[in-house]
Design a protein that fits this description.
With about 160 residues, the protein is α/β, with parallel strands linked by helices. It contains two helices and nine strands, in the order βββαββββαββ. The protein has a three-stranded antiparallel β-sheet, with no helix packed on it. A three-stranded mixed β-sheet has the order 4-7-9, covered by helices on one side. Strands 5-6-8 form a three-stranded mixed β-sheet, covered by helices on one side. The N and C termini lie far apart (about 50 Å).
């Protein structure tokens, strides 16, 4: 494996056999564990709409989190390259998923709403460019087949 390739591995273990397995649509839990060596176990389930456990993370939330997290990390990288000091970052991301009549579905879009606090007010004019560049290098945004939209806002740090 060269420096250009990165491999990731994890285990998803279904923990929802309530005694009958999948004998019926409502006879099993959608609960599962996501295990990555050396990290805490992430407890997952389906969205409650699909008979999941509301106290566990669902795949749709985790996909949205991956897009948002990747953009943030890419944005911070791009900011450093441009000499912009970021002192705060918060994203209130939203995803739109639509279901089809046949029971399938897909994400139609993700809208990231990052609010960035910067040290130098004079850098506020660069923010649109930096978000664009971050989207261009974000591994996750480049991998999904739906648009990743941006509605950023910026605040200079109180000084």
């Amino acid at each position: 494996m060269g420096l250009n390739e990165h491999h990731y591995a994890l285990t998803v273990r279904w923990t929802g056999n309530l005694g009958e397995g999948t004998a019926g649509y409502r006879s099993y839990s959608r609960d599962h564990d996501i295990e990555i060596p050396g990290l805490p176990t992430l407890q997952g389930s389906a969205d409650p709409t699909f008979h999941g456990n509301h106290s566990r993370y669902n795949p749709e939330q985790l996909l949205l989190a991956a897009v948002s997290q990747c953009h943030m990390l890419s944005f911070l990288h791009v900011a450093v390259k441009h000499g912009v000091v970021v002192t705060g970052y918060e994203d209130n991301a939203e995803g739109l998923m639509k279901l089809n009549r046949d029971g399938s579905g897909q994400f139609e879009s993700v809208t990231l709403k990052p609010h960035v606090t910067i040290a130098e007010p004079g850098h506020a004019g660069l923010m649109s460019q930096l978000h664009h560049e971050a989207n261009q290098v974000c591994f996750i945004a480049r991998s999904v087949n739906f648009p990743v939209l941006h509605k950023p806002s910026t605040t200079p740090a109180a000084g």
